Amino acid sequence: MIMKVLNFGDLDSIPTHACEAHRSGDWIVFRCAECPDYERRINWRTGEVKVRNSSEVLHSGTYLPYQLERVSCN
Ligand SMILES: [Zn+2]
After folding, report:
1. What per-residue confidence (pLDDT) applies to 74?
2. Long-range contacts of 10-17 (CB under 8 A, 24+ apart)
3. Measured in angstroms, how far is the CA atom of residue 35 from the centroid of ligand 1?
4. How far is the CA of 64 from the centre of ligand 1 (A)?
5. What mean pLDDT do residues 20-42 have?
6. How far, in Å, is the centroid of ligand 1 from the Cα of 42?
7. Which tens digit of pLDDT belongs to each residue from 33-71?
8. Ligand 1: distance of its center to the CA of 40 in Å?
9. Domain residue limits, the chain
């Protein structure tokens, strides 16, 4: 198991939407409660990123793979 913290977004910037993260197989899936169509996926094996319905709103999220029961968003 690769222990790597995945995050994106500028944490010091203007207001962002905090995303909730959960793991789906090799993918970490970030979803926004305020943007139902938005989804960002990060493959924790390859680092590949897929974004669906990206908007101009900044989104940020953090996923800590070694704390599967506790997800923090920034
Ligand atoms: Zn959003």
Report:
1. 47
2. 10/58, 10/60, 11/60, 11/74, 13/58, 14/58, 15/58, 16/57, 16/58, 16/59, 16/60, 17/57, 17/58, 17/59, 17/60
3. 4
4. 20
5. 93
6. 17
7. 999 999 999 998 899 999 998 878 889 888 876 554 454
8. 11
9. 6-63
